[in-house]
Amino acid sequence: MNDTLVIAGHEFNSRFILGSGKFSLEIVKAVIEQGEAEILTLALRRANMGGEENILDYIPKGITLLPNTSGARTAEEALRIARLSRELGCGSFVKVEVIRDSRYLLPDNYETIRATELLAREGFTVLPYMYPDLNVARELQNAGAAAVMPLASPIGSNKGLVTKEFIKILIDEIDLPIIVDAGIGRPSQACEAMELGVAAVMCNTAVATAGNVALMARAFKQAIRAGRDAYLAGPGRVLEHSGEASSPLTGFLED
Amino acid sequence: METGHMSYADGMEAVDSDIMGRVLSMLSEFDYNGFSGREVEQALHKERLTPFDFAAVLSPAAEPYLETLAHKALGNTRRYFGNSVSLFTPLYISNYCENECVYCGFNCSNKIHRGRLSMEEIAEELQTISATGLKEILILTGESRTASGTEYIGEAVKLAAGYFSTVGIEIYPLNSQEYAYLHECGADFVSVYQETYNTGKYEQVHLKGPKRVFPYRFNAQERALLGGMRGVGIGALLGLDDFRRDAYGAGLHAYFLQQKYPHAEIAFSVPRLRPYINSRTGNPNHVHERQLLQVMLAYRLFMPFAGITISTREKPKFRDNIIGLAATKISAGVSVGVGGHKQPGKGDGQFEISDSRSVAQVHEMIERRGLQPVYNDYIRV
């Protein structure tokens, strides 16, 4: 069965997007291999061209980079970072992150819409990180987003699908890949997100803080696959509260 | 002429802020002996600490819980910073000073060797530092508007911005327009340490000079942010007064600043005056490594997203163990004389360092500990 993730015409076999920046660069390659990830996000502000510990020197060939605009507080700053990213040869994908709160690191949806518009107009493939709000997702789609990346719970919190009901609405209503980003702490939570029908899961802290980073990447890969298969298979009947009553409520009908 | 330490002098900008009032009022009600293990345990079970919880983990009642505090702090540090540890070095460009601070080597009445680097010398120093691979620099001066005016500092910052992606300044407090000027020159981070949050003690130890004005110093971070700076550093000189009270003051200062300026990056420094060896007399001012650790852990639990810098005043063993646990930034290849990277220092240092390791040695240590040395973590936009 050919089931690929398609983002703006680019096809990927893996639905596991891996974050970087929270684990040592020496193991990036092993983690990507074990997770079979094809897309790797990186904070452009961490790039150190020609210098020590430059993440771009550690990324294996064939990986699609998804540089983020971390550090941007406005749409204009995000645009400047994205342009720099393109100049540095990081490709045309960009994950818009506009954050104006150092405490919770929640995305600023309003600036994110503006940034998406500016970046899409310049030909970037834009994947905005957002707080899951249907109206905002529609605006992002209109602004030219190639996918939307709603947060599952606060970044780094590992709390899982706290925003599940709102992500379900995005899945139902938005005709773009929905990629869950931020807050997924365990493979089981990633699996649950995939079962709901999200297109991919992005993970960083949960993998980076594991005792064995590469092994955890493999666990996520398997969980994401299992969830995807379950979604494609169509979940069987799950009775949520009680069994069906033995004497049917509609048994009184006579003609 | 002696300046009243709680009133502004001519030319000092007053910003509209209630932060100092709130911090001082909460400090006046802070009684760290009023806490028991129960409050510490409650704080330890919370995901986010209130100022009350912060006070509890700073209190003597938290001392038996140091190991538990460390475990929780480690989790926070990993969550917010992963295994990364940022590297930087300070560059002193002048040690002239107009203040008479009784605890400081730069005290204007001290007969020390004074010096100020020329622009050529600064460029040479910067080049030499840059060759070590560092991308972040902190430009420091003594506090003298005459010997090291803002234009002189501005020119130095411009030079530094040519070599480094991140330029911070640790100089005398400025008005917001002057901060805006230095921001335009290329500086993005400003550190100003209040030394002590006890206004009475502050008056006793700052005998002369503009630094005597407590509120102008206190509000420097706000003026820096209003001037467009991205981040600010906060700290008390632990050991000058009752360290628990000063750590509480610094934590609250940071807390209210973050609330008012949610976009600002906040960082703590934890300089301390070392007590004499074996002076475990229970003096509330004495900060041994154990107390220093407690303060750093309390900062990490209270403000889990804030950077914490560990200075070369501390011994290598402490520095090596605190990074990744609570500290997120470490200095390396340090000279505290004026200049001293390319040429021998042009003036005496402010204090003595306890860790003279080079950038390469600190890099190697970070990796050996399973952590990730980070040189670049900022893009100027």
From TrEMBL, chain A:
1-deoxy-D-xylulose 5-phosphate binds at G156, A182, G183, N204, T205. Keywords: Cytoplasm, Schiff base, Thiamine biosynthesis, Transferase. Pfam families: ThiG (PF05690). It is found in: Cytoplasm. It catalyses: [ThiS sulfur-carrier protein]-C-terminal-Gly-aminoethanethioate + 2-iminoacetate + 1-deoxy-D-xylulose 5-phosphate = [ThiS sulfur-carrier protein]-C-terminal Gly-Gly + 2-[(2R,5Z)-2-carboxy-4-methylthiazol-5(2H)-ylidene]ethyl phosphate + 2 H2O + H(+). Coiled coil: none annotated. Pathway: Cofactor biosynthesis; thiamine diphosphate biosynthesis. HAMAP family: ThiG. This is Thiazole synthase. It comes from Ruminiclostridium hungatei (Clostridium hungatei). The lineage of its organism: Bacteria, Bacillati, Bacillota, Clostridia, Eubacteriales.
TrEMBL record, chain B:
CDD domains: Radical_SAM. GO terms for molecular function: 2-iminoacetate synthase activity; 4 iron, 4 sulfur cluster binding; iron ion binding. Keywords: 4Fe-4S, Iron, Iron-sulfur, Lyase, Metal-binding, S-adenosyl-L-methionine. Pfam families: BATS (PF06968), Radical_SAM (PF04055). Residues 269-373 form the Biotin and thiamin synthesis-associated domain. InterPro entries: Aldolase_TIM, BATS_dom, rSAM, rSAM_sf, ThiH, ThiH/NoCL/HydG-like. Its EC number is 4.1.99.19. SMART domains: BATS. Its cofactor is [4Fe-4S] cluster. This is 2-iminoacetate synthase.
